[in-house]
Specification:
InterPro entries: HetReg/Transcr_Mod. It holds the Pfam family Het-6_barrel. Helix content is 19%, strand content 25%. By secondary structure, the protein is an alpha+beta fold. It folds into two domains: 30 residues, no CATH class; 63 residues, no CATH class. Strands 1-2-6 form a three-stranded antiparallel sheet, with no helix packed on it. The protein has a three-stranded antiparallel sheet with strand order 3-4-5, with no helix packed on it. A hairpin with a 5-residue loop joins strand 1 and strand 2. The termini are far apart. The model has no long low-confidence stretch (mean pLDDT 78).
Amino acid sequence: MYDRNFPYEDMLEHATDFQSLFDVVDMANLQRRPFVTAKGYLGLGPEEIRPGDTVMVFAGAQMPIVCRDGIAGSVVVVGDSYLHGIMDGEIMDMKPDVRGVFVH
């Protein structure tokens, strides 16, 4: 993260602050994996995410949920995710595919 307008010597003076920031980011992303959806959205999800999983946004949920097809038409929750571009309600402007989901 070198900026021409921020001299390297000044950067060294702030190295401990930068290291603290990187440490916090590393801790926040433990067991997380970056992914890209079929529509090109960049996300960060559970370490177990794999191709073919679906990112779902449930009404009232704080975060998108990564799901996977299960046995006999069931859906398995893999974990929560961050999906850039839909975290602040933007999904509602996209005419999403709305379906009922039954929880057993």
